[in-house]
Every structure is written in C-alpha cells, then in structure tokens.
Write a structure and sequence with these properties.
Number of domains: 2
Strand content: 5-15%
Number of strands: 10
Helix content: 40-55%
CATH topology of the largest domain: Rossmann fold
CATH superfamily of the largest domain: P-loop containing nucleotide triphosphate hydrolases
Radius of gyration: 32 Å
CATH class of the largest domain: Alpha Beta
Shape: elongated
Structural class: alpha/beta
CATH architecture of the largest domain: 3-Layer(aba) Sandwich
Strand order of the largest sheet: 5-4-6-3-7-8-9-10
Distance between the termini: 83 Å
Length: 346
C-alpha cells in the first residue's frame, strides 16, 4: 500500500515538473500585413471653426446675430493660408485669396449658430468662382470647323519633358472617339527620337503622322500637315513642337513663325502639375510671346492636392481643360473645379 502511494506521488511530481518547464503559450498575433499598415480613416472635408472674440460675444448677448470682426476670423484665415501653401499653391495666390476672404467676411452679420458654416460656404464659393472660367470645348470647336469644311488646328507648346507628345496622342484619341478625324504634325525636329515617338502613337491610333528630317523647318511640317488635312477632308490637325524654355529667344522666335504660318485655332500649353510655382511664370511668358488659350496639366495623378492648378487660374487667368493622369491613351481627365476643390479642402 505504501509503495503504491509512493509511486503515484512520484508520478504526479514528475508530471508537474514537466509542465512548469514548458513555455507559456503566446497570444495570437495579427497577420504581419495588418500590423504594418495602420487603419486608414476616410477623408473628410476640412471644416474650420470660427472662434468668436470676447468682444463679439459680449456685443451679441442681446441679439441672435453677430457682426464678424477681423479678430474673429484671423485664426481661420491663417489656417486656410497654411493649408493652401501645403498644397503647393503659390504664396502670392494664397495671400490674395485670404485677403479677398477677409473683405467678404469682416462686417458680415449672421446668426451666432451659423457663423462657422457661413464662413466655410464663403471660402468654398470664392475658390470655385476663381476657377469657373469659360473653357474651350475641343470636340465642339472641331465639329464647328468641320461644318465649314475646314480643319481645326491645334498648336501644342511647353517646356522640355512636359509630356506634349503623349498629351497630343490622348487628345487625338478623345477627338477620334467623338467621330473627329485627325492628323498629327511631328514638328519637333530637335529632340532625338521625337519623330519615331509620334509615329508610334499615330500607329496605335490609326491616324497619319506628317513628319520631316531632323533639323528641318518645323513650320514647313506644320504647313504640310494642314495642307494634307484640307486635301483629305480631315477634321483636326494636332501640331507637336519641340520643348523649349521661355527664356530661349531663338526657339521662341521659331514658335512665333509657326504661329504665323499655320494660324492655329487654339494654342494649348502643356506643363507638369509638379512644376510648382515655376509654371506660372512659364505660362505668362508663353502667353506674352505667342498667346496661350488653355492649359493641360500632366502628371496630375502624382500631385496630391493640385495647388498648381489653383495658382494658374489666379495668376494667369488661363483655363485648365484637362489633367493627364497616366501614360495610356484614355488617361486624360476633364478638369473639374469642384473635384479639385474637394481635394484641396480634405
């Protein structure tokens, strides 16, 4: 009996020792991909609150309305200006916007419960008003010229590397989808492989490209393309040009000559959305020398806020008609003031 109890006790002690030596189970871990990526909160409109000063609150004790004073909105406008600068809006543009808003808000009488809502509504309407300029409709303009038996001539210009040739292909694709026939003039006779690049895009689109020898006169190529369009009943001529800086006098004179020779219906500046404030001066100089009717901003898909667009509207008055948002033919997005504003205010 004693030996039986001794054996059972020995077995129990041995079992207990093994369990004490075992490592405790670790709590279950979330998958690595969930641990690495924080939960993304949905974007919301930035709603700024107006903080009424003590003076304004005292004055409004016996009235349901308040009269907005400068000190009531100073922090609101400072916050807005900082947000615009963060979105790459030009400094002068941001300052001008806040100055205009100050004029609209100071002295305004509103219900105490609606001060912040009214201020935000005025901010939004002011920015929208700045961008709601009449812009050319390429499809309708091309159709109007076609009804007269004449080709619609588009001249594309801008600095080096801005994406002119790709943008021209996208515009040609847009026109073709709307039943408008096109010919592309490969009038960039300076950049290496520019002629071949235009021919590749034209081949993908199923349209003709009229080119020439490298170093030849670009104006003659543009003229030949226009003559071809008239002879063949083609609706639109899209003229590519060599990239050039606005400070290059010889190249700008070449552009002036092309403008005199072909007399384009529309001159479209192509610039990068990522260029920042430099694009404002570029558009101004091109407009001064040759005239700019509209703007297409490329690489807009990697520009988080779109501040350059707002700066162009304010500083140059030129309408933006499209955003380039990729490298494919369909990656051309019609400019929308409300969409840009939603992006700026989130």
């Amino acid at each position: 009996m004693f030996n039986l109890l001794k054996n059972k006790l020995s077995s129990f002690v041995s079992s207990l020792s093994k369990k004490l030596e075992e490592k405790p189970e670790e709590p279950a871990k979330a998958p690595a991909e969930l641990m690495e990526k924080p939960v993304q909160k949905p974007k919301e409109d930035r709603k700024s609150e107006v903080k009424l000063s003590l003076e304004t609150r005292v004055r409004s004790v016996l009235s349901p309305e308040v009269e907005i004073k400068e000190k009531d909105i100073s922090s609101l406008l400072d916050e807005l200006e900082f947000s615009l600068l963060e979105a790459d809006v030009a400094y002068d543009t941001a300052r001008s916007i806040t100055s205009e808003l100050k004029k609209k808000l100071i002295g305004l009488r509103v219900k105490k419960s609606e001060v912040s809502r009214t201020a935000n509504d005025i901010i939004r309407s002011t920015l929208l008003e700045m961008m709601e300029k009449e812009k050319p409709n390429l499809v309708e303009l091309a159709r109007a010229k076609a009804s007269k038996g004449e080709p619609f001539v588009l001249l594309f210009l801008g600095p080096n590397g801005s994406g002119k040739t790709t943008s021209i292909a996208k515009v040609a694709n847009l026109l073709k989808k709307n039943g408008i026939s096109c010919v592309i003039a490969a009038a960039d006779t300076w950049r290496a492989a520019s002629q071949e690049q235009t021919e590749v895009w034209a081949g993908r689109l199923g349209v003709k490209a009229v080119g020439g020898q490298y170093g030849s006169d670009p104006a003659s190529i543009a003229w030949n393309a226009s003559a071809h369009a008239k002879a063949k009943g083609i609706n639109a001529v899209l003229i590519d040009t060599a990239g050039r800086q606005e400070t290059s006098k010889n190249l700008m004179k070449e552009l002036e000559k092309m403008n005199r020779v072909v007399k384009p219906d529309l001159k479209i500046y192509i610039g990068e959305a990522l260029t920042g404030n430099a694009i404002i001066e570029q558009v101004k100089e091109f407009d001064k020398i040759i005239g700019v009717d509209a703007v297409i901003l490329t690489k807009a898909d990697v520009d988080e806020k779109g501040g350059a667009a707002l700066s162009i509207f304010h500083s140059t008055g030129k309408p933006i008609i499209y955003f380039g948002v990729g490298q494919e033919l369909d990656d051309l997005q019609e400019f929308s003031p409300t969409s840009l504003l939603d992006n700026l205010l989130t």
